[in-house]
Structure formats: C-alpha cells, structure tokens
Amino acid sequence: MTEPIITRFAPSPTGFLHIGGARTALFNWLYARGRGGKMLLRIEDTDRERSTQQAIDAIIDGLKWLGIAWDGDVIHQFARADRHREAVEQMLAQGKAYRCFATPQELEEMREKARREGRTRLYDGRWRDRDRSEAPAGVKPAIRLKAPLTGETVVDDKVQGRVTWQNENLDDLVLLRSDGNPTYMLAVVVDDHDMNVTHIIRGDDHLNNAARQTQIYNALGWAVPAMAHIPLIHGPDGSKLSKRHGALGVDAYRALGYLPVALRNYLVRLGWSHGDQEVFSTQEMIAHFDLPQIGRSPARFDFAKLESVNGHYMRASSSEDMLAALEQALPHIAGGEALKARLTPALRSKLLTAMPALKERAKTLIELLDSTRFLWAERPLIIEEKAKALLTPEARKLLAALIVKFEASADWNAGSAETAVRVLAEESGVKLGALAQPLRAALTGRVTSPGIFEVLELLGREESLSRIKDAV
Ligand code: GLU
Questions:
Q1: Which of 173, 190, 246, 255 yields a CA-CA distance of 20 to 30 A from 101?
Q2: Residue 138: predicted pLDDT
Q3: What is the pLDDT of residue 1?
C-alpha cells in the first residue's frame, strides 16, 4: 500500500489571502484531490505581533468562497510551541543542536565581519563545541542547529529540479530563541512531519528555506517530504506583481464581480498547463493537475484574460445559477445593496426572464448588476449621454404617437408591443430602428438592453407608458 498523499496550505495570517496564496492553496488542493489524498490547513501564526484574527478570518472566508475545502480541523502553529520545543530537546540530546550564548553585540560583530569578508555564513560557530560551563552569567542561550560544515544540501524539487547548496554557506540556524520561542523554520518542519505531509507545494520564495529545513529534517532523522516550489506570479510586464497588476486579496476579486469558479479556472492556468486547454471543470482540473507541467518561469497576471474567462462562465451558466450568483454577490459588489433592498419575488422573476439576454453581454457581476438596473430603477430614469442624443425632437414626436397606439391596445405583451411599434414605424415612414432606439433610451436610459419588446413586457404597461411620457 502506498502512503496517502497529504498536502497543506500554510498561510501566515499577516494580511489577506492574496492571489498568489490562493493559487498555492488551489494547487495543493488539486494535487491532493486528484490522488485520493488530503489537503490540510495550517495557520502559521507564530509571529504574534503581525498575526491577526481578522487575517485568519479573511483567509478562511477567501478559501471557502473559492470552493477550496481543506480536510480536518484548522491547525494553529502557535498552539504547538511545546511540541516544537520537544523536538529541539531531542536534537540537543543527540548532539544535533547546541546552546549558543553569544550576546546580541557579539552577533552583530560576527555579521559585520562576515559582510566585510563577503561570506553568507554569518555565525562563526563559536558555541558549537564549547561547554555550557563556559557560559557567561545571566545570558539565556538560543538553541542552534549543528549544521554540517562541509558537503552539500540537495533538494530534488518537483518544479525547480535538483537544487544544491554548499553547506559551508549555510548558517547554524537558530531553532529556539533565547526567550524559548521556536523559530518559524523549526516550526514548519515539526508541523509538516507531525501532520504527515508528503508534498510541500509553495511559492519559490521559500526555496532557500527548503535547504535549511532539509538540514533540520536530517538532524531529526525524519524523511524530507517531496517539494515543489512554484514560480511567483508577476505582473503583465514581467515585473513583480503590484496592486495595480492584480496583487489583491481574494476579497477584492469578489468585490470586482468575478465568479469563484472563473477565478479558480483562471488561477489554475497561472503557471500550469494541460496542452492548450483553457477552460476546465473542477473534475477536469482534479484529473489533470500535476507538478511536472508547472512552468519554471513566472506566470503573468492578466486582467483581460481573467475577465474573458469570467465572461465565458457567465454565458455558460444557466439563468437560475447566474441569478443565484448575483444575489450572493450583492453584499460584496458596489451598488449591490440597492438591488438587494428591492429584491421582491416579482423582481426576481423579471430578472430571471431578462437573464438570458443580460448574461450574454456581461463580463463581471458588476456589469450584470448594472445591466439589470433598468428593471428596478425608479423614475425619472437617469438617461446616459449617448441615450439622450437619441431623444431628438423628431424621436420625441414618434414616442408621443406611440403612447397613443399603446393606450389604444388592449393587450400588453412583447407580441402586441411589437405590432404597435411596427405599425407606427410604417405609418410614419421611418425605419424600425428610428423608433426602437429612442424607445430603448426612454425605457432603459441606455443604448443597449435586451430586446426592446421584451423590455416593454417586463416593465409592464403602466411603468412603460410612464417612462415614455417622462422622455416625451
Ligand atoms: N507561511 C508561509 C507563507 O505564508 C508559507 C510556508 C510554507 O508553505 O512552508 O509564505
């Protein structure tokens, strides 16, 4: 029996779940799900000053919104500090770690010296082999790893390939600070081991940590999990991802009106490919995702592509699903509250009727919301500039004549409205568009909308006539 695959997502709760973190979580989730394994969630909250509950909530909320479900309980790293110290005791007992009584001032001098001599190994190892009895009075020791002085540390990375560090360049890491607090580097190793993590998939900004962590694994006599360090996401111009480029929290993408399923699909293609396939169902992603197809150069974030993927999902969704997605998004998107406050069963059914036409045109839920406005806006309508230009004196005359026709007609539906409009256009010797376009402007305040006869039916006789009268 092969061991079950266990991955983990290990965010530091010092900010929101940003787009790179979301992609890391997604990759870990897909890798585990595709292999009958588990993805665990570990909150790396050892930095007490920078970790906040608000950030933890945002990370969990963001993962849930994206539909990335972890297995089991959330693990909090800080709560495991005793276990981290226990691992250090083991290393001390086995001579794999030692107490270092160097004072801050001594350390500063060592750093200065190393810098002058151009060495990356900062600590000079002065307490490696010294006896505790020589310790200066009143100095609390830090515990350092007794790292190998010669040879190499190698990481066979699933994405980066074989990466080698010369041990002479690597420091004797601090494992426990003099105040007894475990360092981050130690905590990650002990936690990954105890959580039976088999695959560490994370950003390549952690590649150097991988070497240091490998040394800790070796000192503890533990097997090193497989590692995959994925290139970070860059901006469209190849530079480091900035806010302007899309380095936003996942909550910002929700506020921009993207569907979680579309963002997920966009993210999976950010650095990973499967032939030239662009659109993946969840099942397909899970089936195809693997580490060798992750590229070694940074993926570029492209808002236009995200928008086009989102538009694809909006068109492909059923009207019912789209309405549900819109309703869910209302508390999060600009202007959403206004619709939320008016959402009666009657309006819901109008939205559903108009949805096939509306979802065709919208690329985001914000655009979709905007396109529904004519259905629930209160009179007098705000008429946009382009629409105003259609309401010429001649057009107004035609609309006035149309009111008479509509008032004379007994029925009110798309078919009867169409007949009335066509008859009037013919009688007046104008093309259908010369009447339909100003009519659209009067009814919706816009130059685009679903079919105008459908709009008349949706709005109903009274509201339609009132809007036309407002325009005339
Ligand atoms: N907590 C680290 C971060 O948020 C990730 C550590 C890891 O994945 O090993 O960047």
A1: 190
A2: 86
A3: 56
Contact 424, 409 (CB under 8 A): no
Q: Residue 76 forms beta bridges with which residues?
A: 43
Query: Residues 146, 158, 243, 363: which is the catalytic one?
Result: 243
Distance 206 CA to ligand 1 centre (A): 7
Instruction: Give the CA dihedral 193, 295, 311, 237, nearest 10 degrees.
Output: 110
CA separation for the pair 431, 249 (Å, rounded):
51
Are 123 and 109 in contact by the 8 Å Cβ rule? The answer is no
Q: 83-111 as b/e, with b when 16 or more CB fall inside 10 Å?
A: ebbebbeebbeeebbbbbbbeeebbeebe
Nearest to 33 by CA among 59, 7, 67: 7
Phi and psi dihedrals of 57, rounded to 5?
-60, -40
Cβ-proximal residues to 453 (8 Å cutoff; 6+ apart), any chain: 414, 415, 417, 418, 421
The predicted pLDDT at position 40 comes to: 98
Matching residue, tokens 């936003």: 248
Q: Do the beta carbons of residue 368 and residue 317 sit within 8 Å? A: no
Average pLDDT along the chain, 472 residues, taken 10 residues at a time: 89 91 97 98 94 95 96 97 98 97 93 90 91 86 97 98 96 96 97 98 97 98 98 87 76 95 97 95 97 94 94 97 97 95 95 95 96 94 96 96 93 94 96 96 95 95 96 93
Q: Is 243 a catalytic residue?
A: yes
Residue 50 tokens read as: 């920078």
Q: Where are the alpha helices (DSSP H) in 5-80?
A: 19-33, 53-66
**Where would I find the H helices in 409-451?**
414-428, 432-444
Structure tokens of 166? 């010369």
Residues with CB under 6 A from ligand 1: 10-12, 44, 188, 202, 206
Counting from 1 in the atom list of ligand 1, the atom nearest the Cα of 14 is 4
In sequence order, the β-bridge partners of residue 142 are 100
The whole-angstrom separation of Cα 376 and Cα 154 is: 64
* Ligand 1 center–CA 420 separation, angstroms: 67
Please tell me the distance from the alpha carbon of residue 332 to that of residue 366, in angstroms, as a whole number.
10
pTM score, two decimals?
0.92
